[in-house]
Amino acid sequence: MERKGDLMSFRPDIKVVDATIRDGGLVNNFFFDDEFIKELYKTNVNAGVDYMEFGYKASKDMFDVNEFGKWKFCDEESIRDIVGENNTDLKICVMADVGRTDFKRDIPPKKDSVVDLIRIATYIHQMPAAIEMIEYCHEMGYETSCNIMAVSTATEKNINQALELLGQSPVDIIYLVDSYGSLYPEQINELSKVYLEKAYKYGKKIGIHAHNNQQLAFANTIEAASTGVSYLDATMMGMGRGAGNCPMEAILGFLKNPKFKILPVLKFVQNRMLPLKEQGLKWGYDIPYLVTGILNVHPRTAIAAVKDNDKDYAGFYTATWDREA
Amino acid sequence: MERKGDLMSFRPDIKVVDATIRDGGLVNNFFFDDEFIKELYKTNVNAGVDYMEFGYKASKDMFDVNEFGKWKFCDEESIRDIVGENNTDLKICVMADVGRTDFKRDIPPKKDSVVDLIRIATYIHQMPAAIEMIEYCHEMGYETSCNIMAVSTATEKNINQALELLGQSPVDIIYLVDSYGSLYPEQINELSKVYLEKAYKYGKKIGIHAHNNQQLAFANTIEAASTGVSYLDATMMGMGRGAGNCPMEAILGFLKNPKFKILPVLKFVQNRMLPLKEQGLKWGYDIPYLVTGILNVHPRTAIAAVKDNDKDYAGFYTATWDREA
Fold it and tell me: pTM of the prediction?
């Protein structure tokens, strides 16, 4: 498989997806104020970002609306309060988790929604339920993506089975997701090729969603892009659960398409993201995340260690190894 | 050129070089206390690190000994105070800058020194002076390396000329140095191949010294390693000028040779590096460094912005662009 593009060219097929509210919402339980979201929307429009993810379509039967900000639920009117009819080139997406979304109740037909793309997130063993949701959302008139989470712990056989099922489904985009931030660029390269082969066979697009546990989120994103992956997730200042994601300011500095503008992003980071840090929200690379990344396990214990300001890195390594290995 | 090794193998040719004192010394003017250095030495021995760089051999005629800690000068007795006769597998190195070292006065014959390797750092236009130093140090009985700095602003022709000169010199190791942290992994891959071709032709080894301006120091280091580069510079907690370097804890988590141990490094980081941060020393990724990395310029203005706590990232980008472009 030939590498696609080089540092003097750009690929019109590349789409940048801003996932700040959705993955960043996992840091603050989705309590962003409306001014923040409006400014983020404007920033994405001005920066030439292709998609903006507003949050989750979580079921209000399963999650208490008083415990989470409104972007956990992404009611149609909440999004319209920000974007109106969204008369811009920026497309709108939301994420729907398999098993946590009452999709038949909560996802209206596309003609009644400003949302363009429903991103269905699933663990690999939930694939039949994911396919049901993909088919439903497709019939409702949406673009759909499927984000297969935690593939660093899945077998090659299961990944291939999942990709075959998705290939035969109406899904538009299949995401390679490094949930634990444990994959090295050479693994991203190999997995990208596996995903892209199925994409060529079935006429799908491939996306990448990276985590920064080992300071590799940006590197893995551009490695995937060079291999041919075209949907690139990023977040402002890398905001996202635990070690966070590929920083928008880094990926826009890399991409050569002149439609992308880094200055609006730098302004948003200094005016809107720094205050979140000053309020005490914690995200971004830290050594406990490196450890869970190296050991290829869920970052939940690392998130707790960072929250508790526990600096016993060696003890954390030994305890994680003991528990998981 | 075939990629070398994979995630289930290890390459005995890989050597890890701890550059904490030398590159980290640029953060605190080399004022480390002896307990720190002794503990670092023990840590490197226990972690299986191959080389430990103690600092610079700077000329005392050019630099005031009262303004810098002793590791700016690396007198033989200073090193012996820490390592004695160094009866370990860890080799000792020091850096000598072209034009800033009185090498004929300050570098004794190898038989009188515990230093194993002299690392000669040069800009590409100083290559004849570097060759003179290499020949001198080689005759004195040392291993030598040559670190060609700032190659991201050099022409291919000049890089090739420099590599030819070095190939024909007695130097043992040639370093690919990303001084500005501006190179992407695909460029590291291409440059590594250029360096490695010369290495095969002349029987030299190649090393990599990366900076973390774009959060790519670790990614670039493992990209170079996979391409066949065998000397890998790293520093504890990534300590180094500006955005810092490839973190030792990350590279030891990646390397598969069972001789490498991450736990001593994690202990050193929590016990010795965190206090440096608490004392107010600043290093590591920040957005001004990203900007100078993207624009491929020296980080000096970014270092000043971070020191002054200047958070006008957009203004910094515009000013840097205006001045440099």
Answer: 0.97
